[in-house]
């Protein structure tokens, strides 16, 4: 199950190879991310989809070296292909100078809940300026001017007044825009967005995604978007990775994964999305069962217990990763049958 | 904010009157009166009842409760605290002598406990789960649980009696002029007084700090590539500060009203020891004066805390 880089390295902003990140609680080990490989292409959007607890956010935190203290990267490598050459992020000290100089300037992150992700006691301007002060040569008046520019480019009206305000004076959507302004302050190469719209209402979600699409187009920022919304994937993604219980079960370009899904879990995810226009009697199939206990995992395919296509072979060992095309890969025992169109 | 402060200050006046009246009623309800403490039981039993009644009348003790209260209040409004029943000394003179001693002790204890409590609390929170944290937590529990008089007596035994480094008690000697002359007298009471407060502030600061460090914005701060000191102290402690300020504020009246036990143990000539003496003698004008100081301090401090909280935390809006 080795994964060779299928793309020219020039194209890749960040590659993750066989990443394993485990959590340790009460002498038990939760293998939250258990051998994940993917690439984020320059100027492209990679969507990582999966249910809660599948390891999406942990993967993001691992890249940023923002894992909680009880967890650590066990194996694998995270390589940031910077202009200065390749940097192994996983080997850098968590809060060391080298990691800090990349964090927030070259790789930035926005979080799920803008209500709690901004510090309530500092002004929006202060929190944006903080980022600029640590990563750019800007000083004094320039800093605030840049913060105002950033807010304006994120579509925040009256930014001159808004920079002086505190987060509680912003609405949810405005806060997320301010968060994005903060993350984009140093024009990062990679933006990691961890479910950036989960806490926002639907119309605001659309605005935020539109904003992110603009950023990608105007700045060439590579985006790693964590979501569980298949609609968002169809809208924004260039590449998709479907995660389940710490593994990528299927990955490929958005066309490959959405048009020729080859893993029963991807099918199940797609079947569980309501489609606008099909009326209220459409058949939305929820995935039966629930995710297994992370401390008591099945030995074979993690999805086997909930899978309608399960064979005995599924329970023996975790299926190896197979490439259906240079970019399309899947972890399923029956991938050959499925690739030939055998479904149901 | 100004309108809010003015309104709060105006509300303070009726509150102070009401509370002082309750204290007055409480004092009146205790058995005996000043006269019964001025005379020994032998004298009392042998005394002519008419003479006792004359004495009471002279001291103004034979009038109805309400009349006595309003006479006291009237005097107070003219800036007159009255005279001690036991010695006829003007209470304002007495307080002018006693209050600076108490304030000196309170200020030192407050500064020590705030500084050390906050620092130890932060260290404890940042090293959560380590031996340092556990040690500090245990020391904090001990500090909060053991009464001050015990620490006081141990300190006197060790540092004054056995080692002879510091004076046993008192505040000053005739030849002492400056603060530095008096410093050796101040060390023990100030330290003993600050032990319990330091432990309290530490436990509070640790809890508030842990709470703040678990917030999402700490991860955001770290994701910006800020150095750890800035993440912890600026983003973390700044948010943890509010509850700590409230705690310290509410300890303040107890300090200014006189730390009764510590002043008693070290014979510190402050308001606290005066309070004990006056209650014992049923010298109600003195008790009332001290009670009033405490009441006003509590009321003033609560307004100050509100204003400080609004300054520290922009989400807090004063007013309705």
Assembly type of the chains comes to heterodimer
What integer value in Å does the Rg of chain B equal? 24 Å
Spatial arrangement of strands, main beta sheet of chain A: 6-7-8-3-9-10-12-11
Query: What is the mean predicted local confidence, pLDDT of chain A?
Result: 86
Poorly predicted runs of 5 or more residues of chain A: 1-5
For the biggest sheet of chain A, the summary is: 8 strands, mixed
Residues in helix, % of chain B: over 70%
Overall geometric form of chain A: globular
What is the strand tally of chain B?
0
Order of helices and strands of chain B: HHHHHHHHHHHHHH
Which structural category do the helix and sheet elements of chain B fall into?
Answer: mainly alpha
The helix content of chain A, as a percent range, equals 25-40%
Q: Which chains have the largest interface? A: A-B, 30 and 20 residues
Largest sheet of chain B: none
**DSSP strand (E) fraction of chain A?**
15-25%
Anisotropy-based shape of chain B: globular
Q: How big is the Rg of chain A?
A: 21 Å
- Overall mean pLDDT of chain B stands at 84
Specify the number of helices of chain A. Answer: 12
Please give the number of β-strands of chain A.
12
Write the element-wise H/E pattern of chain A from the N-terminal end onward.
Answer: EEEHEEHEHHHHHEHEHEEHHEEH
List keywords for this structure.
A: 344 residues, eight-stranded mixed beta sheet, 24% strand, B: 320 residues, mainly alpha
């Amino acid at each position: 199950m080795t994964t060779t880089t299928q793309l020219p390295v020039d194209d890749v902003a960040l590659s993750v190879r066989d990443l394993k990140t485990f959590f340790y609680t009460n002498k038990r080990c939760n293998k939250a991310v258990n051998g994940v490989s993917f690439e984020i292409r320059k100027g492209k959007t990679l969507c990582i989809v999966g249910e809660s607890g599948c390891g999406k956010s942990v993967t993001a935190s691992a890249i940023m070296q923002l894992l909680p203290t009880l967890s650590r990267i066990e194996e694998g490598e995270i390589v940031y292909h910077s202009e200065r050459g390749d940097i192994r992020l996983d080997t850098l000290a968590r809060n060391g100078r080298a990691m800090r100089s990349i964090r927030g300037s070259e790789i930035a992150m926005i979080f799920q809940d803008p209500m709690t992700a901004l510090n309530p006691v500092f002004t929006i301007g202060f929190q944006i300026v903080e980022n600029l002060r640590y990563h750019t040569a800007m000083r004094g008046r320039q800093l605030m001017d840049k913060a105002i520019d950033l807010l304006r480019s994120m579509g925040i009206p009256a930014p001159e007044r808004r920079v002086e305000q505190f987060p509680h004076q912003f609405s949810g959507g405005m806060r997320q825009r301010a968060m994005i302004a903060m993350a984009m302050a140093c024009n990062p190469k990679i933006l990691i967005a961890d479910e950036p719209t989960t806490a926002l209402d639907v119309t605001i979600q659309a605005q935020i995604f539109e904003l992110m699409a603009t950023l990608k187009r105007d700045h060439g920022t590579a985006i790693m978007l964590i979501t569980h919304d298949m609609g968002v994937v169809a809208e924004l993604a260039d590449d998709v990775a479907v995660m389940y219980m710490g593994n990528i079960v299927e990955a490929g370009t958005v066309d490959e994964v959405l048009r020729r899904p080859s893993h029963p879990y991807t099918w199940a995810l797609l079947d569980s999305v309501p489609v606008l226009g099909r009326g209220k009697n459409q058949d939305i199939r929820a995935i039966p069962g629930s995710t297994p206990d992370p401390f008591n995992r099945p030995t074979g395919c993690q999805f086997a217990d909930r899978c309608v296509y399960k064979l005995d072979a599924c329970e023996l060992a975790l299926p190896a990763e197979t490439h259906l095309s240079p970019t399309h890969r899947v972890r399923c025992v029956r991938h050959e049958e499925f690739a030939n169109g055998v479904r149901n | 904010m100004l309108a809010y402060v003015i309104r709060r200050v105006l509300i303070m006046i009726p509150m102070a009157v009401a509370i002082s009246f309750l204290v007055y009623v409480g004092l009146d309800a205790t058995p005996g009166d000043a006269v019964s403490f001025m005379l020994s039981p032998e004298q009392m039993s042998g005394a002519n009842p008419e003479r006792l009644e004359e004495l009471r009348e002279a001291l103004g003790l034979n009038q109805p409760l309400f009349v006595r209260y309003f006479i006291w209040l009237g005097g107070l409004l003219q800036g007159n605290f009255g005279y001690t029943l036991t010695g006829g000394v003007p209470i304002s003179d007495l307080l002018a002598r006693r209050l600076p001693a108490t304030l000196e002790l309170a200020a030192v204890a407050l500064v020590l406990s705030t500084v050390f409590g906050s620092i130890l609390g932060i260290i404890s929170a940042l090293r959560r789960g380590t031996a340092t944290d556990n040690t500090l937590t245990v020391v904090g529990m001990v500090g909060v649980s053991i009464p001050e008089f015990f620490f006081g007596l141990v300190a006197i035994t060790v540092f004054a009696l056995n080692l002879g480094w510091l004076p046993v008690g008192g505040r000053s000697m005739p030849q002492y002029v400056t603060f530095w002359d008096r410093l050796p007298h101040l060390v023990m009471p100030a330290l003993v007084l600050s032990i319990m407060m330091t432990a309290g502030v530490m436990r509070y600061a640790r809890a508030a700090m842990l709470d703040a460090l678990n917030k999402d914005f700490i991860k955001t701060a770290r994701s910006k590539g800020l150095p750890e000191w800035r993440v912890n102290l600026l983003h973390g402690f700044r948010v943890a500060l509010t509850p700590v300020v409230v705690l310290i504020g509410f300890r303040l009246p107890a300090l200014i009203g006189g730390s009764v036990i510590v002043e008693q143990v070290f014979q510190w000539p402050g308001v606290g020891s005066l309070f004990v003496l006056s209650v014992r003698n049923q010298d109600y004008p003195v008790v009332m004066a001290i009670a009033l100081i405490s009441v006003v301090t509590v009321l003033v401090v609560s307004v100050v805390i509100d204003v400080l909280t609004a300054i520290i935390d922009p989400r807090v809006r004063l007013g309705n």
